[in-house]
Design goal:
Layout: H1 8-17, E1 24-27, E2 40-43, H2 48-61, H3 75-85, H4 92-99, H5 101-110, E3 118-122, H6 127-131, E4 138-142, E5 152-154, H7 157-173, E6 182-187, E7 192-201, E8 204-212, E9 226-229, H8 235-252, E10 257-266, E11 269-276, E12 289-290, E13 294-295, H9 296-304, E14 318-324, E15 330-336, H10 338-342, E16 347-352, E17 359-360, E18 371-377, H11 380-393, E19 395-399, H12 417-420
Parallel strand pairs: 1-2
Antiparallel strand pairs: 3-6, 4-5, 4-6, 7-8, 7-10, 9-14, 10-11, 12-13, 14-18, 15-17, 15-19, 16-18
Helix pairs in contact: 2-3, 3-4, 4-5, 5-8
Length: 426
């Protein structure tokens, strides 16, 4: 895991409930390893070969039964380490394809999985030349970022050029090399969006939850807000979604462990947007319980260890979560209305995760939320309304009138010569 992940605490707690002895492989810059506790293995995620060697060396003295990435950051590293140790895992090239959107699209298309028409371009390309060769509306996507970062819709050639330079700045700020990095341009797929949480065993997909996303996600950015389960879609449509995800997993080689998929559904059926070889992000997993109160993380750990799984049936009531969106850039100075929101019927929790006196960066540059609202009830519609009502209770004091907050909020870097020459730069 990385130090900033939301997911670490849930997995560590689940491991302790199962009586497991664990070591946390933490993304740690070189030179800081000595400051960590004995239960933490310092790994440099940017040097996977060295990280695998450290894991293998550690396993000689402390044999490992499983290696698990808690989020996107180390999916490939976990697969490489598992392969080196001879542990059950997805093939490293499948883990790579689940992280790289271009590889994912190529394999899905080759496997006949319904997905958007896509084209790949280098980041050094001339956006003005590309803009007149693509269909509109379209969506520009970076290859490696997650959580909708850098994903921008364009409806016209002019919007395409503007979106390109914004995406380019985001990608370069993440440390990617301009000369070796590309991006995707995809046809925009209209429709209702859903998310599927599943578990793969020898390539067979067991659906753990299917979430409706009732807020329209039509751009120009694609910030997710409300997830509600069970889905209100007809049973036949839900089965088509399950089948589509299973085919998508097979096309890129995912066969074992958690899978989180995003799809659009329209009159032509389900369309695959993305599939990841990890569980749902943020704190969203807290609304999922199986059997006699087993959490999602415990289920994943049991599966990774080859243990018998109890019932995978979810609790019967509807459940939902709202990822509280960041409305504007600035410094978070205060939050009010939390107790009022917690008193809304069906609300089971309100967690503000953004720290005070810290900068907020909305999409497409940002990578986090203000917090999460959780609800349970008799019907998905009631849960959705409870989440919206609780959100209306919250008031955020975000100050705009500030000096430089951080690199993400500073004015754009001076244009490159090629950008400066283009009339639509910035």
């Amino acid at each position: 895991m990385t130090p900033a992940t939301y997911r670490g605490g849930a997995f560590v707690s689940a491991a302790r409930r199962l009586g497991l002895e664990i070591v946390v492989g933490l993304d740690t810059p070189p030179g800081l390893a000595s400051s960590r506790s004995p239960e933490v293995l310092a790994l440099d995620f940017k040097a996977p070969e060295e990280a695998v060697q450290r894991i293998v060396s550690f396993a000689r003295e402390h044999p490992l039964q499983a290696v698990l990435s808690v989020d996107d950051s180390a999916v490939e590293l976990a697969a490489l380490a598992s392969a080196a140790l001879g542990l059950p895992c997805n093939a490293p090239d499948a883990a790579e394809a689940a992280r790289d959107k271009y590889l994912m699209r190529q394999r899905m298309a080759a496997g006949g999985v319904p997905c958007p028409v896509f084209r790949h371009f280098p980041l050094t390309a001339d956006p003005a030349a590309i803009a007149h060769t693509v269909s509109y509306p379209c969506v520009l996507k970076p290859l490696r970022l997650s959580g909708s970062r850098g994903v921008i819709r364009a409806n016209t050639p002019e919007e395409f050029v503007t979106a390109f330079y914004r995406l380019k700045r985001i990608v370069l700020a993440e440390g990617f090399d301009e000369g070796s990095t590309g991006f995707l341009v995809e046809d925009f797929i209209p429709g209702f969006e859903v998310a599927l949480e599943g578990l793969l065993t020898a390539g067979q997909l067991q659906v753990l939850a299917l979430f409706d996303k009732p807020d329209p996600l039509d751009g120009p950015f694609f910030e997710e807000t409300i997830y509600v389960t069970p889905s209100r879609l007809p049973a036949a449509v839900q089965e088509a979604i399950r089948s589509c995800v299973e085919r998508a997993a097979a096309s890129i080689g995912l066969r074992e462990g958690p899978a989180h998929a995003e799809l659009r559904v329209n009159e032509q059926g389900p369309w695959m947007l993305e599939i990841a070889g990890r569980s749902i992000g943020g704190l969203c997993s807290t609304i999922l319980e199986f059997g006699a109160g087993m959490c999602l993380e415990e289920l994943i750990l049991r599966h990774a260890l080859g243990r018998e799984l109890p019932s995978l049936e979810r609790r019967p009531e509807a459940a939902g979560v709202m990822m509280i969106p960041i409305p504007q850039a600035g410094m978070l100075k205060g939050v009010s209305g939390i107790e009022e929101a917690r008193q809304v019927p069906l609300i089971t929790g309100v967690e503000i995760t953004a720290p005070l006196n810290n900068p907020l960066v909305p999409l497409p540059e940002g990578a986090s939320y203000l917090g999460f609202i959780f609800a349970r009830g008799e019907s998905p519609a009631a849960v959705e309304e409870a989440l919206r009502s609780a959100h209306r209770c919250l008031r955020f004091d975000i100050r705009r009138e500030l000096p430089v907050l951080n690199a993400a909020l500073t004015p754009p870097a001076p244009p490159t010569p090629s950008e400066r020459a283009h009339p639509h730069w910035g």
